[in-house]
Amino acid sequence: MVLPPRKDSLKWxxxxxxxxxxWVADMDFPVAEPIQxxxxxxxxxxxxxxxxxxDPELKAxxxxxxxxxxxxxxxxxxxxxxxxxxxxxxxxxxGVLTQVPVYPPFLAAIRQQRRTVLANPLRETEEGYRLxxxxxxxxxxxxRLLLFCHPxxxxxxVYSEEELSALxxxxxKHDLIVVSDELHAPLTYEKPHVPLARFLPERTLTLLGPGKxxxxxxxxIGAVVGPRPLVEAFKRxxxxxxxxxxxxxxxxxxxxxxxPWLRETLARLRANRDRVAAWAKEVGLGHFAPEGTYLAWFxxxxxxxASFFLKEARVALNPGENFGEGYDRxxxxxxxxxxxVLEEALKRLAEALKKV
Length: 356
Fold this sequence. Notes:
The protein has 356 residues and is α/β, with parallel strands linked by helices. The chain has helices at 10-13, 33-43, 56-66, 78-89, 104-111, 133-140, 161-173, 228-235, 245-257, 259-283, 305-313, 339-353, and strands at 20-21, 71-75, 95-100, 116-121, 123-125, 128-130, 143-149, 177-181, 204-208, 222-226, 286-287, 295-299, 315-316, 318-319, 330-334. It is built from twelve helices and 15 strands. The strands form four sheets. Strands 2-10-9-8-7-3-4 form a seven-stranded mixed beta sheet, with helices on both faces. The protein has a four-stranded antiparallel beta sheet with strand order 11-12-15-14, with helices on one face. Strands 1-13 form a two-stranded parallel ribbon. It starts with 9 loop residues before the first helix and ends with a helix.
């Protein structure tokens, strides 16, 4: 079985060596060669301060490849942007809307800044997860800000144009500012990603970065794109730092030259996704194959399910309770690994389920 090196790896170094880690969201695959080359070339050159606003060519590439319009500002990462958005557009004690289950920093950014989580759970239908638009409408009056995740983490849902249009209408009606985390946008399968800002350009800030699609989590960088007044208000609540020159070089190379690597990687991820979906059906776990991301979300019959699987299967998964209240029987699995690792993990999980 091929195992990635553990040195300096949060994913592979957190647990004992007999544990297979399918938790934190980075990939086990090597970075694209053009990105490696761009980092080396930049490191051999000038490593002084960049322009305070970052690389203008990279900004133009981001707008060109995403189809977004507006101002672009760099930041140290998308999670920083979640905190900045809550600080910029709400005050302590106010409510912030989000869909649950959701990536834990969404909830942390709200709670740690003494705001109130206004949770609007996704609806679990026979076809998969869907936005509860009626629930959103009921909660919208109590907030100024909606934190949105698209493609959705942890469910892997890629929202339809109809859902996005309806959400935009609600946001416009209730004067909501929407901050849309679209970090996983390049990682979609059969259904293409459509930015929320296409339907709500005047009230949407889109958060982007290369970390997930190009496996660059250790070179953190992100960007916010949106109307200049909103971006300027947002920037006042970001750390006053210069963009990382190596991260900008890597992102530019990704957009210019790493397309073939990304297509090949998506094919590997799709095969893993389909294997996981087939396995979930075999063992009887509640699961909808993700339309995007490399994350699988399962409903189990087990309370504190992640702790159970760590103990009984020696497989590390993300605990569902971290993604919102009432999800302790759920787990998130990262399938961006080698088939040998995935097969061994699924075998161990299946054996553990027999003990239930």
